[in-house]
Amino acid sequence: MLGALLISGTLSGCSTSPTATDKNDPWESWNRDVHSFNKDFDDTILKPLAKGYKDITPNPVDESITNIFSNINDIGVTINDFLQLKFVQGGMDASRFLVNTTVGLVGAFDVAKMIDLPKHDEDFGQTLGFWGVPSGNYMVLPFLGASSPRDTVGLIGDALFNPLTYVSFFGGFAANAASAAATGVDVTDSRSDLMSSEKILNEASVDRYDFVKNSYKQRREYLIHDGNPPEENDDPLAGEALEGSATGPAANNSPNNLSNPPKPSTSAVQNPNAVIIIDNSTTMPKEAPPVPVIDNSKHLLELSAPEEENQRK
């Protein structure tokens, strides 16, 4: 979990010269400085580690490691399902965790996917949004990347749902060392999985800070409303109120509902060969305009590489 959080700022990119402060981004000066710091940290430490990991790790082993940490994440997903009153989906995700933990050998193999138990994406930030908590201003956290006051509180909640947190605090020296090693592997594995995505980000944006910001906000709106975000409103305050009102019956809680995808921002990549990842089991059609998205539960930038890049991988 912690490893996934550390990836959020790694693909943020170098900021260009700051433009006039956006009234909807009052913390832009701080955000751009932290954005640049995260990029430097990635270039210096994370990317070299990820490249080395990718070079020496066979694809089946890499996939198994990714599946194990995804399986741990399903604990928090299940809890947030029930907190959002998604009882059917919660039952599916609980079953998914049990199947993969047992038959899938502690999650090394995604057996649940083979029996139609897809991976869902829920986090405590979405839960707060479901119950009407507004997101607040966009903010960039050191190491953790794109966020908001609501989603920062959500990170704390997600950490409390993660068993590795308690191993770190109460497990003694040996357990702490093992947990730290697991976190390091999670960070490196997650970063290596994003290597191909970085090419799209590099080619997509003139101002990478604005690109990541718009993508993040758009993705969070999409997730909180389960694929049916409210219509855009010219009044930014009204839009914020709509986001914070996604509660109870007012929110469409059908999992993986892609019938009303979010509208692409002006910085979206108009690449007909790009496929935008919505979750681990679903993709947008190639014919649809690609929409840059950020997965905040894992804090990963999810932009797919061109089709030929994926084939080489």
Automatic annotation (TrEMBL):
Keywords: Lipoprotein, Signal. InterPro entries: MlaA. It comes from the Bacteria. Residues 268-284 have a biased composition (Polar residues). Residues 224-313 are annotated as: Disordered. GO terms for cellular component: membrane. One of its GO terms (biological process) is intermembrane phospholipid transfer. Belongs to the MlaA family. This is Surface lipoprotein. It comes from Methyloglobulus morosus KoM1.
